[in-house]
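yo

u said u wanted the structure for the complex thing, so here. seqs first:
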Amino acid sequence: MNSTRRRTVVPARDARAVRLAAGDRVRVVDLEGRQVGDVFCFAAEDPSEALSAAHTRTQLGRLFPALWESFVTDRRRPILTLVDDTSPGVHDMLIAACDPARYQALGVEGRHASCAENLHRALGEVGLRTAVVPQPVNVFMRISIEEDGGLTWLPALSLPGDSVTFEAAMDCVLVVSACPQDVVGINGGNEPTALALDLLPAHEPAERVPALHDTGDEQ
Amino acid sequence: MNSTRRRTVVPARDARAVRLAAGDRVRVVDLEGRQVGDVFCFAAEDPSEALSAAHTRTQLGRLFPALWESFVTDRRRPILTLVDDTSPGVHDMLIAACDPARYQALGVEGRHASCAENLHRALGEVGLRTAVVPQPVNVFMRISIEEDGGLTWLPALSLPGDSVTFEAAMDCVLVVSACPQDVVGINGGNEPTALALDLLPAHEPAERVPALHDTGDEQ
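structre next:
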């Protein structure tokens, strides 16, 4: 497999955008473990159409897609299909992307990197812009829902090498931000770390890449 | 109380927009019971700022605000405060507004009224427009969340006269659509019915208006 030759590293606290043709697959890899990635996806021909968490929940009747189910846009068109997940399978599609107002409310003084700003900058690097920040798909993010509707932010469970793989259902632009959150302990209480985007050739089987916790020896 | 003199009826399958000044209160009344209302709210001075379900969940750490908590915008500013609720208290903030694509996917042939189209038309009637359809606050809508993340659409529990009351936290434009959904049984399996918007004078106590199920005699 030559995926490492097509690897884009998303540095800690930063984001990268990649263009995908329909059928392309991209693997989002948690390099060091317990790092949340905010994933956004826009239709290539018109970025005002974007992956929508609310429309995806409505389409699927689930809080998060199961394997081989598709995320849809705000126009209810499939845009990404979840084709593989080697992580514990805990992800979030309820929480907004962090932004300067969020860190201000959390008591941070001065500048703090955020997924919302990362999104704008990464899109700009591929010549696009968005008027809104869609609700992201927060891979590896662990939010528990209590009986009374209360939400709890928990440390991610993903281990080094864990990944989720998406297949583009249309030509699109994918943006992944390695979430800079270091006030709320979603990133395992650690300093934010890097992610990687491995572009797989279209139709290459989404084979399971063993992660540390898959091998009995290393449990 | 003179609220009935300031009543705006939202006809079944239709929507109405009302302008609110900070401090104004509006009561959304389910006139006949079991009718879902899709509530949208936009900043009066710049309707590109709107009530955001995702930012509200993040701000409050809850799926839906408790009494006296505020919905916030995508810029994390309070826009509406929930000040009274005489219904069973079951509402939704997960599901997207219905639109033509939704009814097409549900097998409806030909035209079907929708909350998304209602929103655009009602905003137009007060001279505004929005490029996006924000995820609505679905009052009286009952969606259960299963252990595995599955969502189930259930009939509304609200009885005739039940209401929720919001106080504007900023000058804003509120839009309420009496949801035309008659394929999925959220509206009690009935034909969609009308709602009412009762504008209350600023700072009038949000006193509890007895609904049918509040009086032991009529249980």
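The longest strand of chain B covers residues 78-85. The helical segments of chain B are 53-60, 100-105, 115-125.
cya
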